[in-house]
Design brief:
The chain is built from 14 helices and 16 strands. The chain has about 425 residues and is of the alpha/beta class. Helix 2 packs antiparallel against helix 5, helix 2 packs across helix 7 and helix 5 packs parallel to helix 6.
């Protein structure tokens, strides 16, 4: 099926969604979750083929991003069930105004229509995007990278089986067959067919969509996430948070990439950081890329010109020393991609200043940046993490996949 043919199917399916109740949608989502579990062996077999083809082509940490397991598939199914438990945003009255002349104006949440998502090598995005789209009243068009296409195709096959079992059209979830740049371009320029395009991947993909899309597009994903260790920080807490933010899954967009340290605490803190992230991690030591001042305290790699502007997605951490929270805020706002930043401090004044001053979608006080995730935010799962400011910001759940319209009821009113 060509991409254009698929888009026509999506547009046709869009017109049918309004006839289904919330109960119909929830029953279909439950059937989709069940189908993922039923088809787990087939999905894992296709995922193994994707991994075999990718070894030696992408890094080990990106292989982890691509890899599925029985537990991860169970997690995907649970993510769908979590979405079932959430209230539907469709038809929700956001604001009601009664005018003196008798008009009643209701600002009402409505679905966008057809939501397309272009993503790279994370197969779990397939089920997350499908579930959120359907629950929010949208048709989902998926276009994944070639590294994950076999896995995504197997997942979509299971999801469509679930839709059929529940009596809903399988074309509510569609996967683009073409993995060349041509199909991505077709989605970017699918005026009249795609109501919202969400790119989810590296800077190249996101920049291409933002630059070339003629359909509405939300910028997501790229995460140069910072943690600032203030002079009053609890050192043990800081070490625990930093190890989690950097090492638990370095290939994801909410992983820490830059550490900023107050000058007063640096001599006591940095040697313990090196012990925790480098010396004690024989299998996956973190490469510390140090600015000039940090390099006088501990050994590491001298920071290069671009190291404070790089999303490493690997066991690499750039380290910068600053004088205080004001300099930390200035440095982070200059180099951040607007994703997630954190401060570790015992000073409530510094914490409040940091929270107000940082211009990112998610700002943490004494917690890991790894919590920037739809599931962790209570959204069930997420469509992506928006790093822009219009329409949606931060993890995107059901409400962010709706727009609104005004419904006005009168009694013969004329103007």
């Amino acid at each position: 099926m060509t991409t254009q043919e698929l888009l026509k199917k999506a547009k046709a399916a869009k017109s049918t969604l309004g006839s289904y109740s919330v109960e119909d949608i929830d029953r279909a989502l439950t059937a989709m979750a069940d189908a993922l579990i039923e088809d787990a062996d087939a999905i894992l077999a296709e995922n193994a083929a994707d991994i075999a083809a990718s070894r030696g082509v992408i890094s080990d940490v990106m292989i982890d991003r691509l890899s599925l397991s029985a537990d991860r598939i169970a997690g995907m199914a649970q993510g769908i069930r979590d979405v079932v438990s959430l209230p539907s945003p469709v038809g929700k009255v956001l604001k009601r105004v009664e005018r003196p002349g008798g008009l009643v104006i209701e600002k009402t949440s409505v679905a966008l229509g057809v939501v397309a998502i272009i993503y790279e090598s994370r197969p779990n995005v397939t089920s997350d995007a499908a579930a959120l789209s359907l629950k929010s009243g949208n048709v989902c068009v998926l276009r994944c990278g070639k590294e994950a296409h076999k896995s995504a195709a197997a997942i979509v096959k299971a999801l469509r089986k679930g839709l059929t079992n529940a009596g809903l059209p399988e074309d509510l979830v569609l996967l683009v067959e073409d993995t060349t740049r041509q199909s991505a371009t077709e989605l970017m320029t699918a005026d009249g067919y795609v109501d919202l395009l969400i790119p989810r991947g590296g800077p190249g993909l996101i920049n291409a969509c933002v630059k070339n899309a003629t359909v509405p597009c939300i910028q997501t994903g790229t995460g140069i996430c910072h943690i600032y260790v203030d002079s009053t920080a609890d050192i043990d807490m800081a070490l625990n948070i930093i190890e989690n933010a950097k090492c638990s899954r370095p290939s994801v967009c909410n992983a820490e990439e830059v550490l900023v340290v107050a000058r007063d605490i640096a001599p006591a803190f940095l040697p313990k950081l090196k012990q925790r992230l480098v010396d004690a991690r024989a299998e996956n030591p973190v490469e510390l890329r140090l600015d000039t001042e940090a390099a006088k305290i501990i050994d590491g790699t001298p920071a290069g010109e671009n190291d404070f502007d790089t999303e490493f997605l690997d066991y690499i951490l750039a380290v910068k020393i600053v004088s205080d929270v004001d300099e930390a805020i200035a440095h982070i706002n200059r180099h951040s991609t607007g994703h997630s930043e954190a401060i570790i401090t015992s000073d409530t004044t510094a914490a409040d200043k940091f929270a107000r001053g940082i211009d990112s979608s998610s700002v943490y006080v004494n917690a890991s940046t790894r919590f920037t995730d739809g599931g962790e935010f209570g959204l069930g799962c997420e469509m992506g993490i928006s790093t822009q400011k219009l329409h949606a910001r931060g993890p995107m759940g059901l409400e962010e996949l709706n727009t609104y319209k005004y419904i006005i009821r009168g009694c013969g009113n004329i103007r």
